[in-house]
Design a protein that fits this description.
four-stranded mixed sheet, 32% helix, alpha+beta, 68 residues
C-alpha cells in the first residue's frame, strides 16, 4: 500500500475515534484528512504520536522540521 494512502487511513481512523490532530499547534480535528496531507505537501513535516500511560494514541502532532 502506498505510504500516502496508509497515512490517510491513519488520519481517518484518528478522526473517527476522536484523536486530536494538530499541525504546528493548530487543530485540524474538523478538517478532512486530505486537507492535512495537502498542508504537509508544502514542506517537510514530522509526525509525533502522543499516547497515554496504556500506550493508546491520544493525539497526533505534525510539525514543520524546517521552521526555526
Amino acid at each position: 500500500m502506498e505510504p500516502r494512502i496508509r497515512f490517510l487511513d491513519q488520519l481517518n481512523y484518528a478522526k473517527a475515534h476522536g484523536i486530536g490532530i494538530d499541525i504546528e499547534g493548530i487543530s485540524y480535528n474538523h478538517r478532512r484528512p486530505q486537507d492535512v496531507v495537502s498542508v504537509m505537501q508544502k514542506g517537510n513535516y514530522m509526525v509525533d504520536y502522543e499516547s497515554d500511560v496504556t500506550g493508546h494514541i491520544t493525539a497526533i502532532h505534525i510539525n514543520n522540521v524546517n521552521r526555526q
